[in-house]
Specification:
The chain is mainly α. It has helices at about 10-15, 35-45, 55-60, 65-80, 100-110, 115-130, and strands spanning about 25, 50-55, 85-90. The protein is globular and about 35 Å long.
Length: about 130
Amino acid sequence: MAHPARPGSAAARGADARTDIEIELHSLRPRRPDPWAADLAALACLPDTVAKLSGLVTSADRHTWSAADLWPFVSVALEAFGPKRLMFGSDWPVGALAAEYEQVVAIGRELMADLSEHGRAAVFAGTAARVYGL
């Protein structure tokens, strides 16, 4: 598992050098989108890399966040990885600093509302089941 705060770092170089491991990026919400978006896209070029949509509300302003605040980061991740290489994560219990568990799940569903039924199923269950062998 790698944190994408520095996707161009040793984690990215290591992932590029290895073909026998699957890399999971978690807590995809940085404080600023640049250069994060370009680095995330570069990591997404590695076929055995998946990303978890977690840490979204805890990295935003904990008192005033909205779907509009989170969408720029989610849209970059969707564009880079697609639903089959993304998985939802609540970031619980840390997420409770900014929202109740139910709110985090609801905002995740809202942010994925435009995906097809198959896309939503991948993000909320299928990708995790495949990656974790469930």
